[in-house]
Amino acid sequence: MKHMRPACSQCAYWVAEASGNPPITGHCHRYPPGVYVNSQTGVVVQKFPTTDHLHWCGEWQGDDQELVKAAHRALLKRAVAPV
Question: Between vectors from CA 6 to CA 1 and to CA 4, what angle results, nearest 5°?
Fold first, then answer.
């Protein structure tokens, strides 16, 4: 049986942009941000990949265990965060 891959918006590593309801784009925080240099200005920036909420990636291989662990860590982090 072929598994349906979850969309980015369902991933524990995806952070929606503030605009839009529901959010259409967001940023993948699975890995550290990439470092980019603007060749015209020389400005160095760090960016997480921007993705559409319906995109998906190859990280998910039909085993939800890693995503469940990440979601659990995110919930625990929010539970202990100061208000």
Answer: 20
